[in-house]
Design brief:
Four copies of one chain form a homotetramer. Chain A has two domains: 126 residues, Four Helix Bundle (Hemerythrin (Met), subunit A), CATH 1.20.120; 141 residues, Orthogonal Bundle (Helix Hairpins). By secondary structure, chain A is an all-alpha fold. In chain A, α9 packs antiparallel against α11. The first copy, chain A, is flat and about 80 Å long. The interface between A and B is large, with 51 and 47 residues.
Chain lengths: 270, 270, 270, 270
């Protein structure tokens, strides 16, 4: 078998999902990804690790070497290696092996291997969950439409948080836990997002009054991203409905789960 | 009375709600369900139980035996026993007696008797709260329409929570309460859902910066399920309005609480 | 002046808002209500009260006697006393004097005088804030339309909270703060509403897993009332727009703040 | 150069953004604003300040004097000085230098310099982020439309918070942290906005029952501002779409990011 033929065959197996071999490879890959993530989680639990430290390290390196080999083969058998390397999956594939090597120099860095989880998103392609992908696309397109409004909103929230944070720093002061302006800004974000840990809480009456005011603002402006997104999504759904046209009677407005034209009954996807 | 006639009569009383006897039986059942749930709650309060331990155990077994008898009769008098056993109510009826018997082996299991509460949902059928059922159907249909979008959303939230959790585990470490990756993921979910117990809270400036970022993300993406559900519900309500047609002037678009056509005034439900 | 003439004159002053005397009376009343509420708040602050205890009690009784007299006169000068007594304002007027008398028997009951605040709602009528009243009506009508859907939603939330609470009681147990099923249900409501005090928090891994699940459910179903209300409100606003018709060109669809027809320019409210 | 010519030239540089000099001036200004805000944040961190106290004070006064000079020049070279002074930016410009002078009398007041951040909003004008400004306008217009409904909503929330707060003060009392009515109202706002610090939490069963009720109310009425805003925004977006008309085929309904008519393909902005 020539090198070129091998390359093409490997490409079909590794990148394709239509041949049995390609499908098996992808399923094997997904199982390996899940196992390596579970391994990583277990490794972080002290009681588990103490006894099996060596086993954990060995297993982690087996996964890393396996994924490194896979990454090398992917580059080698790509017709346009650079295109793969700079694609979303190419970057994720690299990031999911790098931390192991970095951890040789910086201990603890291996926990960043968790980005391997992003490789799991391939599952959509493999299992032909196209319907889910189309739903995801509707969501993403609505977010794209809404992104400028959301940016304006976030800038306003950050300016608000900085000003409220500084005022609280002046009013409450380091004695009540507001030990610096950045920490007060952190507290303000905790408050206006309605998370409210309570590790820092205003103690003076004036501070509590300002805090109550900040909460009511946060409680109202939570409406803004919801409103933006809902309005855009409603339009996107409407647009989707109108994008499916019956080939018999040429009428539009069919539901996304409709298989037949609701006016003349002929199949929408013959 | 033959066995067959008895079967049919019992079936009418136990499953039906149209005869006085059937209605009385159902009302008696609902009262028994509520009493047994209240009993269970009282049983969990230490101060109450200490003195009346025996009385509580006796009462609980009386209810359990009563419901067991009822379950047996329901199976016996059903024309198609297997259909009842595998139906939603059949499973709930079984689950609401099983824990008592399990508690003979595993102490404490009897608290799972709380699933008896699900039997309470029969109240809708008995009290002819059909209007409420139709409202519930609108809600459920909107959720069904939105389920694929919601699934995509939850997968994204879980991947996000895992990545944020691992980063926080590396940044904060066991010294600040982030004692393992699963616990850090728990913390991340507590944070991005804006619950914020505060039992674990970031202590380092970098950790607080990442936490603030996670909060803002959680605060924004709360918009996503709301947007999805609102958009679907608005369509569902619109569809409901259009599903009622005046039999006189054949116009649609009537409110769900309308009794007369708003165009020609003739009754919509003659 | 005959008793009948006095009655009519008093009725005009007390119930009316069109004469200068009637307006002055209402403004005086609103000031008195606000003062008595502020007094009540100040009274609850220990440091303030200790020195001026007598003054506070005297002032409170002056307000109470004044409002009692007003209530008596309102009944006396009403053409149909019973109608006033059973109206919303009649009940509020009675509730805002009763606690003072009850506090003679039950100490502390006087804090319930805070219901006087509801009398403050008269401000809408007095200041002719009709536009605000019409906005409030739109909101209330949307809520009325949504009330059955919201009821179904709340029943589901309560059943969910009871089941989650019982499971958490079994899993976590009294040792971790879940000391009884009612307290566990309280914790579940604190969690699924995303309030999250943190006074009770799950300690076991299984408890934290179930809690994370409850949070994600709470985080999603917050979408339900929002969606219901938004959908109903959007329809109500649409209906409002269509309810204003230009008397010149008979076209509808004008904004609620429009003064002129946007098609032909003639005044909408001549 | 005459004084008038100088005035005009300075006006072009300081207020204008079209000449290279004007653009450079604005960029220099924005950098200075960001630096002075960062300086202020650093100043609040004790560990940083202790060693460089003098340097911080000197730098802060350099910025303050620089901004004071700029403010004076802006007034001097304005054709209508009073109009500038009373404009939004005029007030912000004054507020961003005043605290330094006040801090000579009242120590700590200099942290209010954080309002300098509002000057940063000029960035929109300078960087020609007009698209963002138009998005911001859509948001602001929706808020204006919704302001009366939001006001009614906030009044209801405040009345609710006062009544719940007073009831909780009576039920829980100072022994459980509810030390006065104002503090109980603060707790109620923390609860119904779902922030939930947990610094004050109900201890008695009755208090927890009322708290659970308050949470469920807060959890539902969060729907109200969201619903109001979403409904208004959806209309505003619809109105925006209809405000762009194709000059070829005169059809409307184009998306805000469309450059060509979607019906005939001719350019929308020739």
């Amino acid at each position: 078998m020539t090198s070129q033929a091998l390359k093409e065959k490997l490409h079909l197996i590794i990148f394709g999902t239509d041949t049995p071999a390609g499908k098996n490879f992808d399923i094997f890959l997904i199982v390996a990804i899940i196992l390596s993530v579970v391994l990583l989680m277990a490794e972080s639990m002290e009681t588990v690790v103490r006894e099996y430290y060596l086993a954990f390290r060995v297993l982690e390196w087996i996964f890393t070497l396996m994924f490194t080999l896979e990454y090398a083969v992917r580059i080698w058998c790509s017709p346009k290696p650079w295109q793969y390397i700079r694609s979303f999956y190419g970057i994720v594939d690299l990031l999911s092996i790098l931390p192991s090597y970095i951890s040789l120099l910086v201990p603890g860095a291996n926990y960043l291997l968790i980005v391997r989880l992003l490789r799991f998103l391939r599952v959509f392609r493999v299992l032909k969950l196209v319907r889910y992908l189309s739903e995801a696309n509707t969501l993403i397109r609505s977010m794209m439409m809404a992104r400028r409004k959301i940016s304006v909103f976030f800038l306003v929230v950050l300016v608000l948080a900085t000003i409220f944070g500084s005022v609280m720093y002046v009013v409450e002061g380091p004695a009540n836990g507001f030990s610096s302006i950045p920490k007060s800004i952190y507290w303000t974000i905790v408050t206006i997002t309605t998370v409210g840990y309570g590790d820092i809480a205003p103690q003076t009456p004036l501070g509590q009054l300002i805090a109550a005011f900040a909460m009511l603002i946060g409680y109202s402006i939570i409406a803004v991203p919801t409103g933006i997104f809902t309005a855009e999504l409603a339009q996107e759904i409407q647009r989707n409905r109108n994008s499916i046209e019956c080939i018999q009677c040429h009428k539009i407005g069919h539901d996304s789960d409709a298989d037949h034209c609701k006016y003349c009954g002929s199949s929408l996807y013959p």
